[in-house]
Design a protein that fits this description.
GO terms for molecular function: mRNA 3'-UTR AU-rich region binding. The protein is built from seven helices and 17 strands. By secondary structure, it is an alpha+beta fold.
């Protein structure tokens, strides 16, 4: 076959990104721009909202929510609550969030993917080791007592209505709240690292909006001395150790905010390091990885969580592929992260 018979084969950019992501990435970098048409150190803009309608209706036990949008990716994070009994003295001084991540790709049901489980585990460990939620903040306030009266149901709380409250001297149990996070990802076009950043941001934003409800038990046949009216002067012993706890969703004015160690401007930023196509001895730092080319072709990565005070909460390094993580690139990434925290993510 002669050279005249050979024809050059060309592919559209989206096809080339799938079959040869490294070639596509190198072609763009040689032109001084990334495949997503952003500059090397440019982040996608982020928009944060909350779904107040769900909170007003207390839909499905939702007590806080956050909607994070970045480019074509939307993340909806809802926080629900569970209650556990405290057994002995808890050695852990800090709590965390128990997240379930679901990346919606049109599939119906099935077991969670490795990516979803890894994201959930990373979020759980990062929030825990960052010491964002003191265990004291999750302690249930003094439990109320609901009494059915002629004009309806009345709930008494010992720290709010001491004069009218019936002592629960036999109730020796204590409880703590457990925060459950349901994270749904729509139209995922970001890398796993960038997806962690958005999920972490949604958790921090939702935690700052979280208000814990009051819990109460209903006066029932387990009451040793029954009180029929709030005007009664009887003050009896209430056996509540076997009573069922209820969430007081009717009196939202009694909800209370939890004290968090979340510093203002806490944000996670991710970076990729790739060899320069013009100079093999140099590496290029890329921020906020996105797209097929950057997801597949860039193996050396960094993730840094900073806040407005300049503190660093977390640094994660993966040195793989051709791009080497040098101290100079690490310093550059830290400075970019600090500047991003001070300026905000919008």
């Amino acid at each position: 076959m002669s050279s005249a018979d050979l024809k050059q084969v060309s592919f559209p950019p989206d096809v080339l990104a799938r079959i040869a992501p490294d070639v596509s990435l190198e072609r763009h970098l040689s032109l001084g721009i990334r495949p997503n048409l952003r500059n090397f150190t440019e982040f996608n803009s982020i928009d944060i909202k909350s779904n107040n309608q769900q909170l007003q209706e207390n839909y499905n036990n939702i007590f806080a929510s956050s909607i994070v949008k970045s480019g074509p990716t939307t993340i909806i994070n809802t926080l629900t609550l569970g209650v556990v009994e405290n057994y002995g003295q808890d050695k852990d001084k800090y709590g965390t969030v128990y997240p379930v991540v679901e990346i919606l790709r049109g599939r119906m049901g099935g077991a969670p993917t490795d990516e979803e489980m890894i994201l959930g585990q990373d979020l759980y460990e990062t929030i825990y080791h960052s010491k964002l939620i003191p265990n004291e903040s999750l302690q249930v306030k003094p439990i109320g007592l609901g009494i059915k009266e002629e004009d309806g149901e009345t709930i008494y709380y010992p720290d709010l209505q001491e004069a009218d409250y019936i002592p629960q001297s036999e109730h020796e149990k204590s409880y703590s709240f457990v925060i459950l996070s349901s994270i749904k990802v729509y139209s995922k076009h970001t890398s796993t690292n960038s997806l962690f950043d958005l999920c972490y941001l949604s958790c921090v934003d939702a935690l700052q909006k979280l208000k814990l409800p009051r819990l109460y038990i209903m006066d029932s046949i387990q009451t040793k001395v029954s009180v029929k009216s709030k005007k009664s002067t009887t003050r009896g012993l209430i056996s509540t150790n076997k009573a069922e706890l209820n969430i007081d969703t009717a009196n939202k004015q009694h909800y209370y905010s939890i004290e968090l160690n979340i510093k203002e401007g806490s944000i996670s930023s991710n970076y990729g390091i790739v060899k320069s196509p013009d100079n093999n001895d140099e590496s290029i730092l890329l921020t906020d990885l996105q797209g097929q080319e950057e997801e597949s072709a860039i193996l050396s990565r960094m993730s840094i969580i900073t806040n407005k005070t300049g503190s660093i909460n977390r640094i994660s390094l993966i040195n793989g592929g051709d791009g080497d993580i040098s101290l100079e690139l690490l310093r550059d990434a830290i400075e970019i992260s600090k500047r991003r925290s001070k300026e905000g993510v919008m």
